[in-house]
TrEMBL record:
Keywords: ATP-binding, Nucleotide-binding, Transport
Organism encoding this protein: Paenibacillus naphthalenovorans
GO molecular function: ATP binding; ATP hydrolysis activity
Coiled coil: none
InterPro entries to which the protein is assigned, alphabetical: AAA+_ATPase, ABC_transporter-like_ATP-bd, ABC_transporter-like_CS, ABC_transporter_ATP-bind, P-loop_NTPase
Gene3D superfamilies, per database record: P-loop containing nucleotide triphosphate hydrolases
Keyword Nucleotide-binding: yes
Name of the featured protein: ABC transporter ATP-binding protein
Length: 291
């Protein structure tokens, strides 16, 4: 089966200006991603997990078309991603709703951009608000909704204009543990109902194993794919307590084994960065080409 999304040898570096006092400012590259290759199948739920600062959001921005790789390419249905468009919906950690619009109007927004007529727009927006379990809250404003409800609306908004791929950047990280778990199982239900391809980014191992059909584990910066793990649970949405299942615990342990050193390295990098400024040295000779 051909890939829905094909990430091929992607490198990404950023040029940052360092202020050297009276000397001329010098540009120093930050190597964010190094030789990322990953194929995501149509309808797959792919989770990318990695330590803080390893380049997860950078990768998501590339998938969204918000930035371009320094080298390598990303294909959607075999065609290079040229910029942001409605084929990919994005849900961020911060809810990114318009505070002056009601829940319904927020969900209608993407449809408006797509040129869908008013009546059809309202109908579709109501259906997606139902799908995320918020029927009856259509006329509430964001400030009248809890964090979990706002994130449900953000998901409804991203799904309403029918993107082929849903990109999710730590969408539940700001929520309390119980709301997060509820939304995780809701998301699996929505994924089953819609058949969308989902790429979900997190630094939570448990979240990754619970949600993903496959989990790509990233290294510390420059981010590389360290391993891709198959998650062999077929009955995620059956309602049984998967998290305490011995196989779940074993895979969680396996992923932590892969991540442990990366988390320590990334903590050291963070300390180095705050001591010596933003420009950290690449730690590999084969690092990214400059932009
Ligand atoms: N526009 C930019 N200019 C310079 N450096 C950047 C830029 N965007 C990201 N970086 C650097 O690239 C590296 C990867 O950042 P990114 O935000 O993608 O990591 P992350 O894995 O999403 O981190 P977190 O989990 O903490 O959100 C970091 O060192 C970051 O400082």
């Amino acid at each position: 089966m051909s890939a829905k999304i094909s990430i091929q040898h992607v490198h990404k570096s950023f040029q940052i200006q360092r202020n050297l006092g009276h000397l001329k400012a010098s540009a120093q590259p930050v190597y964010a991603l190094q030789d990322i290759s990953l194929d995501v199948r149509p309808g797959e739920f792919m989770v990318i997990v990695g330590p803080s600062g390893c380049g997860k959001s950078t990768l998501l921005d590339l998938l969204a078309g918000l930035t371009k790789p320094s080298s390598g390419q990303i294909l959607l249905d075999g065609k290079p991603i040229a910029g942001p468009d409605l084929s990919r919906g994005i849900v961020f950690q911060q809810y990114a709703l318009f505070p002056w619009k009601t829940a319904l109007a927020n969900v209608e927004f993407g449809l408006e951009t797509k040129g869908v007529g008013r009546k059809e727009r309202k109908k579709t927006a109501r259906e997606f608000i139902q799908l995320v379990g918020l029927g009856g809250f259509e006329n509430r404003y964001p400030h009248e909704l809890s964090g979990g409800m706002k994130q449900r609306i953000a998901i409804a908004r991203s799904l309403a204009y029918d993107p082929e791929v849903l990109l999710m950047d730590e969408p539940f990280a700001a929520l309390d543990a119980q709301t997060r778990e509820t939304l995780q199982s809701e998301l699996l239900r929505i994924w089953e109902a819609t058949g969308k391809t989902i790429i979900f980014i997190t630094h939570g191992i448990e979240e990754a194993v619970y949600l993903g059909q496959r989990v790509a584990v990233m290294s510390s910066r420059p981010g590389r794919i360290k391993a891709v793990i198959d998650i062999p649970f077929n009955a995620r949405t059956s309602g049984e307590d998967l998290r305490s299942h011995p196989e779940f615990v074993a895979i969680r342990h396996q992923i932590w084994g892969l991540l442990k050193d990366e988390v320590h390295k990334s903590q050291e990098q963070e300390m180095e960065k705050s001591l010596h400024g933003a420009g950290a040295k690449p730690n590999s000779k084969g690092a990214a080409a400059n932009e």
